[in-house]
Model the fold of this input.
Amino acid sequence: MSTTITNPTVQTVSPGLWALAWRRLRADKVAMIALAIVAAFLLTLILSATGVVASDWEQESGVSYAPPGFVGADTGVAAKVEVEAPPPENPLDPLADIIAVTGTASYAKWVNGSGALVASGVVTDDAGDGPFRLGGSSSGIVFAGGLAILGTTTLDG
Done:
């Protein structure tokens, strides 16, 4: 008796790169939870973009400047609006000499700490002969945010 052994070669087709990747992803529990979270974020994004969710966020739903609370507005207490007087001007304020507006300076007043006028007059550039000269300037332009610093000061008269 003769026995023949035949070895048929079975050719299988590879499922493909994406199918293998999806199979590995489905096998990983942490990756599937992360995929579900990302899908929930994308669903929320789509729903909010279409106006199904959060369509009225621009509307004011509370009272401005209300005290915080957990349940809602306290209807038993009326809201108090207190208007405070502005604080007195501080003569030692380091920011008081900051220039507020960009432009050409033409007239200046110099007052002391108590607000009394010390001197006033025309503002000129560095080469001018006015009582107030802008050092380092050839046009008399001052810029907002700049600082007015008194250099060597002499009062004639």
Observations:
- The radius of gyration is 39 Å.
